[in-house]
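Dear H.,

Thanks for agreeing to be a second pair of eyes. The structure we're designing against is below in token form, covering all 290 positions.
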């Protein structure tokens, strides 16, 4: 018997995994929870294998389910792209991109505007997430593409877009600071974070005492804390806001550079490949090693 997978059921499967809950998927898709359960059962019947197992109150994927999930993403993307190409689409093609918060105010809007001129009907799902997770989310198929920071020489995946030096930053009002006799007050992202690691390693390497003054998952939160004199932080020179200065003195150690890489999932659709080209071009124009 030939197996034919239900595309709508595959959509439900993908939504449930991406949202972390099939109850949330039911709300997003406008279906009852019983209808979602029936779709998942239908997928298992079509696959002839157990795709889900219960862990507490959650459904998680079996090995067979994880395999079908990866194919399901590709099936849905190609299905929707073909429908648009034939003018028969009842829904919009979607591509999912991820990027650090550093690039939400220039790279993202410029790329979106350029892409919309040639692909006005494509829905772009943006996740401005934590840098450490972006490469992994592309690898497992949760994102179609992402730009993310990486330690030089540590990742052979993706395409190198730029190598960016790191600098110490603080409020422009501060003079003759930080006091070399006091621990350096650090304003950083919470763990894990490449910028955080670079700051701590550099200070430890010079046996310079430090303390965590403020940690946050928000880049605007970092800039605000610096502006009000809460401490020093480590960032690239990309879009440093007014009121913040790079520290050229103060006995702080030199910092390494970070790579900016573009990651793409395997079997990217033609629409996704078009956005990759646009994104690469915009990054090349807007990001420079200063």
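And this is the sequence the design step returned. I haven't edited it by hand at all.
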């Amino acid at each position: 018997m030939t197996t034919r997978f239900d595309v709508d059921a595959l959509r439900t499967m993908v939504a449930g995994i991406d949202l972390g809950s099939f109850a949330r998927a039911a709300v997003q898709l406008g279906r009852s929870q019983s209808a979602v359960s029936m779709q998942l059962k239908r997928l298992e019947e079509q696959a002839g294998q157990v795709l889900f197992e219960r862990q507490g109150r959650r459904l998680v994927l079996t090995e067979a389910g994880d395999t079908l999930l990866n194919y399901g993403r590709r099936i849905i993307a190609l299905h929707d792209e073909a429908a648009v190409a034939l003018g028969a689409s009842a829904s919009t093609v979607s591509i999912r991109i991820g990027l650090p918060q550093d690039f939400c105010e220039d790279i993202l809007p410029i790329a979106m505007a350029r892409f919309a001129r040639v692909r006005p009907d494509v829905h772009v799902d943006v996740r401005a997430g934590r840098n450490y997770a972006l490469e992994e989310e592309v690898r497992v198929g949760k994102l179609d593409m992402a730009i993310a920071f990486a330690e030089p020489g540590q990742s052979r995946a993706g395409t190198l877009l730029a190598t960016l030096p790191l600098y110490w930053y603080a409020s422009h009002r501060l003079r003759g600071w930080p006091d070399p006799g006091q621990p350096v007050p650090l304003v950083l992202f919470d763990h894990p974070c490449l910028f955080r690691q670079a700051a701590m390693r550099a200070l430890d390497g010079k046996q310079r005492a430090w303390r965590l003054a403020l940690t946050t998952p928000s880049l605007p939160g970092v800039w605000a804390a610096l502006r009000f004199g809460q401490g020093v932080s480590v960032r690239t020179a990309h879009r440093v806001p007014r009121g913040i200065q790079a520290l050229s003195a103060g006995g702080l150690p030199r910092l390494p550079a970070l790579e900016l890489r573009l990651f793409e999932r395997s079997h990217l659709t033609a629409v996704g490949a078009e956005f990759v080209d646009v994104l690469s071009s915009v990054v090349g124009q807007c990001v420079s090693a200063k």
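Two observations from my side: The chain has a mean pLDDT of 87. The two ends are 62 Å apart (CA to CA).

Warmly,
E.
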